[in-house]
Design brief:
Elements (H helix, E strand, L loop, with lengths): L1 H14 L5 H10 L7 E5 L4 H16 L3 E8 L6 H14 L3 E6 L8 H20 L3 E3 L4 H14 L3 H4 L5 E3 L4 E3 L7 H11 L15 H16 L3 H30 E2 L2 E3 H4 L4 H16 L8 H12 L4 E6 L3 E6 L2 E6 L8 E4 L2 E3 L5 E5 L9 E4 L8 E4 L6 E3 L6 E3 H7 L4 H4 L4 E3 L5 E4 L3 E2 L12 E5 L1
Length: about 450
């Protein structure tokens, strides 16, 4: 397979001229680089990133731009150490800032996703360090074709089917892929013409990686049908992005009504048309995963839709990168799934701040008689009072009934979301009698306004 591919590339190289001028035109006339712009360039020392670096160096001859070369050693090949040194020397010879890191070890996650996350976190750190305007990566036209076809095969969002954008607004900087106009063969031809040194990662020839199988089987077929097929895919990508942007204008009007602070209001959501409902889910996922849509597919959308339709009052699902979607009655909350368990027991004196962001304090008087106020008589309890989290088997004695009621049932009756119950404050005396569940329920130990009491507590 490797020999066939090399021969195929040699044939193409003979027919390719210098196609990089379109990239230069994009940088100078569309992106419009300016004096003193700072660019962080992700550079592997491969043919793509070295070609892009050469283009930027040529632009620097005419325009005073600052280039930071960012290199990540994935620590998987013995050649990687030498490639890092060669690139570092190249940067020194060309008066370029060089920054590098090595990935010491990987977890159990998908290798490519994990490596990508590590790379981009490193790049973003450098963007902040140098106050950069741009982060450049060397993704090219062939990469776009592969990404689009892979996402069609996996299932994705409308934006996901468009592959990736040449410019992504990241807020404080722009992520830019200038080589999107050219193919791998055109990049290699440019390097040959300009005598640009680079390293070849031989793992790119191994078909055990999914992307390589698309690259080695589907791409040659498509290019055999049309050598300029990458331009058709670029047009397809741009068209989908335009339609997606148009549809999003309508979605943005609807999504503000149903999605706020990472919460979906299911009552309002269920009033919308099915197409709008589905697109809202896609938009939420796109907002969460930004430009990392390769890991999201139709199955994740189906999971969220099943969660929405679930008859269970409380349920949850996990999404990639440990994102958790939690249904609590008529609300779905989407957040990072990593959350430390908070167990506490705090002596209640005059005032206490609680881990859930609320507080309990002793007050002199109150006209209110709702569940935010608790009145207690010294004769009915044993001091001191404590505020703690719930325990397994907790029960509370209530007025007007013989016996007690499980806290779990009280939370269910009050429709308290499952994820909030473990941190909800419980007021108890020194004998562990439950006096009050602030904001929810009072026990048989609490008093009415017209009864005798010594203490008033308020929950804010």
């Amino acid at each position: 397979m490797e020999n066939i591919l090399l021969e195929f590339h040699k044939i193409i190289l003979k027919n390719n001229g210098d196609k990089m001028q379109r990239v230069i035109n994009f940088l100078e006339n569309e992106l419009i680089l300016k004096e003193n712009d700072v660019i962080v360039l992700g550079n592997s020392y491969g043919p793509d990133s070295m070609a892009l670096l050469n283009v930027l160096l040529n632009i620097r001859k005419k325009l005073n731009i600052n280039i930071v070369v960012a290199h990540v050693n994935h620590n998987l090949r013995k050649e990687s150490a030498k490639e890092k040194l060669d690139l570092e020397k190249y940067c020194l010879d060309n008066n370029l800032i060089f920054e590098s890191m090595i990935i010491e070890q990987y977890g159990d996650d998908n290798f490519h996703n994990e490596a990508r996350n590590i790379r981009y976190n490193f790049f973003e750190d450098l963007v902040r360090k140098y106050n950069a305007n741009y982060l450049f990566t060397a993704h090219h036209g062939d990469d776009l074709i592969e990404t689009i076809i892979m996402r069609i095969a996996r299932g994705s969002t409308l934006k996901g089917y468009s592959g990736f954008s040449k410019i992504v607004d990241m807020g404080n900087y722009k992520l830019v892929r200038p080589l999107i106009y050219v193919t791998k063969d055109e990049i290699v031809a440019y390097n040959e013409k300009n005598h640009i040194k680079y390293a070849v990662d031989k793992s790119n020839f191994k078909d055990k990686y999914t992307r390589n199988r698309y690259r080695h089987v589907i791409l040659p077929f498509l290019k055999g049908e049309d050598p300029n097929v990458h331009e058709k895919f670029l047009k397809f990508s741009t068209t989908l992005e335009e339609y997606d942007q148009y549809i999003n204008e309508e979605i943005n009007r609807s999504i503000k009504k149903v999605y706020k602070d990472k919460k979906i209001d299911l009552i309002k959501y269920n009033e919308l048309e099915p197409l709008i409902q589905k697109k809202i889910i896609y938009n939420i996922l796109e907002d969460i995963y930004k430009d990392d849509l390769m890991i999201i597919n139709d199955n994740h959308v189906k999971l969220i839709k099943m969660l929405i339709k679930s008859k269970k009052a409380n349920a949850y699902i996990y999404l990639p990168h440990n994102i958790k979607a939690v249904k609590a009655y008529d609300v779905i909350t989407i957040s990072n799934g990593v959350k430390e368990s908070v167990n506490y027991e705090i002596e209640l004196l005059d005032y206490v701040n609680l881990p859930n962001g609320h507080s309990i304090e002793k007050i002199e008087s109150s006209d209110s008689n709702d569940n935010s106020i608790c009145r207690i008589s010294n004769s009915d309890i044993v001091y001191p009072l404590y505020v703690r989290t719930r325990k397994h088997g907790d029960r509370m004695k209530l007025k007007k009934i013989n016996g007690s009621k499980r806290l779990k049932d009280i939370f269910i009756d009050a429709k308290i979301p499952l994820q909030e119950r473990d941190t909800w404050p419980i007021v108890v005396d020194s004998c562990d009698n439950i006096i009050w569940i602030p904001g929810i329920k009072k026990s048989k130990f609490t008093k009415q306004k017209n009864e005798s009491y010594d203490i008033i507590l308020r929950y804010d």
